[in-house]
Write a structure and sequence with these properties.
Structural class: alpha+beta
Oligomer: single chain
Distance between the termini: 93 Å
Largest sheet: 8 strands, mixed
Helix content: 10-25%
Number of helices: 3
């Protein structure tokens, strides 16, 4: 009888210890959106959803180092090819999600920041750009855009030229090499000098082109 009592007590102790360990794990912020969300307020969530379009969802997440200063997960999310809209893109594997900035949210120990990106498309972790997982505020998402002069092409003019993370001279050089005529009306996607570029194309130009590589980007519009 005594042995049975001791064994039962040991099981209770183990269960209590496991429960305490689970409760001690930090969670991912706290739900902050108007629409239903997933993952926020939970530890090691397999799905994180902001409650909006497909770019705000990461699925089938596998985490490492949860509980440490920076937890890193891999999963599936939607990468939007530059120059295209969300609806024309599909979820792809290889998204990386990072939870960091441990603190307290809604009275619980939690990761206060989260961001996801696509290393396979040249994107890297930027600790200055993230979603505040407790309040939903987007931090560091406004990039400084340099407005550049028009660029003369063969029979066309590139207007509304903008550059991020590069000089206007570099943007001009790349625009002059762009296969504009091929994609002007019907749109499409192409890779140029390491930049992923695209445009939806329109029946009546101007058409807007956008090209991105890592943190560098240039954009322009072209009319006949």
């Amino acid at each position: 009888m005594r042995a049975a009592v001791l064994a039962s007590a040991a099981l209770v102790a183990i269960a209590t210890s496991a429960s305490a360990a689970t409760q001690a794990q930090p969670v991912l912020g706290h739900p902050w959106g108007i629409n239903p969300q997933q993952g926020y307020g939970r530890a090691k969530p397999k799905i994180v959803s902001n409650g909006g379009d497909a770019t705000g969802v990461v699925r089938a997440i596998k985490w490492t180092a949860w509980g440490r200063g920076k937890a890193v997960g891999t999963g599936t999310s939607t990468y939007v090819w530059p120059g295209t809209n969300v609806a024309t893109n599909k979820p792809v594997k290889g998204a990386r999600i990072v939870a960091f900035k441990l603190g307290t949210c809604a009275g619980r120990r939690a990761y206060m920041a989260v961001e996801w990106y696509f290393p396979k498309y040249g994107e890297t972790f930027n600790p200055k750009r993230y979603i505040n997982a407790c309040t939903g505020i987007y931090v560091g998402y406004r990039s400084k855009i340099t407005r550049c002069p028009n660029v003369s092409l063969h029979g066309h003019t590139a207007k509304n030229v903008g550059a991020i993370g590069m000089t206007c001279s570099r943007a001009k050089s790349l625009i002059k090499q762009a296969p504009v005529a091929r994609y002007l009306r019907h749109g499409g996607r192409y890779v140029q000098s390491g930049f992923r570029c695209g445009t939806q194309g329109v029946k009546t130009p101007p058409a807007s082109f956008d090209c991105r590589s890592g943190r560098s980007e240039f954009s322009f519009s072209v009319a006949r």
